[in-house]
């Protein structure tokens, strides 16, 4: 299947489980990590022909998604004498696509890049839409750019080596989209048989369905609002909380999707306290998260510290925190007028 992302200046296609061969008349830097290269490099190389290929392998993990790694990537690109016509391929999960896109956006003021995601999370979300960047001491993804790939190639075969935890974490981002945009998707997710989802022999078809539904939805959102002025903010549902949790736990305890699952549950508590959703809807989401054994709770040690961290969120403007909440299931809303008391009361339920 091919899904077009119809951006006026940067249109591109996302290929989902389509055979492809990349004939590239240029130098290519292939950015990945040792684990992915060990598992999938040979298979990928059968699909690429180019002038020269340079492999850039960086450490695996969100804790390495920082400016030091970007510097290392850029140095290797300069050492390989890549020029403005060269191409960068990000081959990995969300950490790799975020860093690859960012490095491509600043190398000699910008070179082309494509994403070949190897995690479910990157296929359903991170690799599509052009958000690139790194974390720093102050928080997650606070440094970066909007820079669209030239194409994205999602292949279920690369997902076969993921472990259960990684698969479920990827599903969390899909659940997020369903709650924000489409209740029918939530029905679809509820009907996914957990064993089928995790079973190596029959999971490809379910992956193709999940990825294509998610990418189709995300493409429409990004076309509408590439730079996150409004609608795209809804894709941050759960993330306002998740980014703080990930930063507080130094990116070592939770996979991003797991933190998002907790964040969605926290956002739902707030939405419930505000009367935006009812107990039944709140429970429905919690049950879906629990069905896929995603975490739903986190012990907040210091309420005020957690609250203050909201002010570093990219969605906080003029000291107003923009919370992304479900209005009903399948429809999101942005609220920036919630009182501090109400926020603390909701956070207090996680102490
Ligand atoms: N991951 C959220 C977005 O791309 O907007």
Automatic annotation (TrEMBL):
Binds 1 divalent metal cation per subunit. Can use either Co(2+) or Zn(2+). It comes from the Bacteria. InterPro entries: Dehydroquinate_synthase, DHQ_synth_AroB, DHQ_synth_fam, DHQS/DOIS_N, DHQS_C. GO terms for biological process: amino acid biosynthetic process; aromatic amino acid family biosynthetic process; chorismate biosynthetic process. SUPFAM superfamilies: Dehydroquinate synthase-like (SSF56796). NAD(+) binds at residues 60-65, 94-98, 118-119, 131, 140, 158-161. It is an enzyme of class 4 (lyase). Its cofactor is Co(2+); Zn(2+); NAD(+). Its main location: cytoplasm. Pathway: Metabolic intermediate biosynthesis; chorismate biosynthesis; chorismate from D-erythrose 4-phosphate and phosphoenolpyruvate: step 2/7. One of its GO terms (molecular function) is metal ion binding. Keywords: Amino-acid biosynthesis, Aromatic amino acid biosynthesis, Cobalt, Cytoplasm, Lyase, Metal-binding, NAD, Nucleotide-binding, Zinc. Catalyzes the conversion of 3-deoxy-D-arabino-heptulosonate 7-phosphate (DAHP) to dehydroquinate (DHQ). This is 3-dehydroquinate synthase. It comes from Campylobacter cuniculorum DSM 23162 = LMG 24588. The lineage of its organism: Bacteria, Pseudomonadati, Campylobacterota, Epsilonproteobacteria, Campylobacterales.
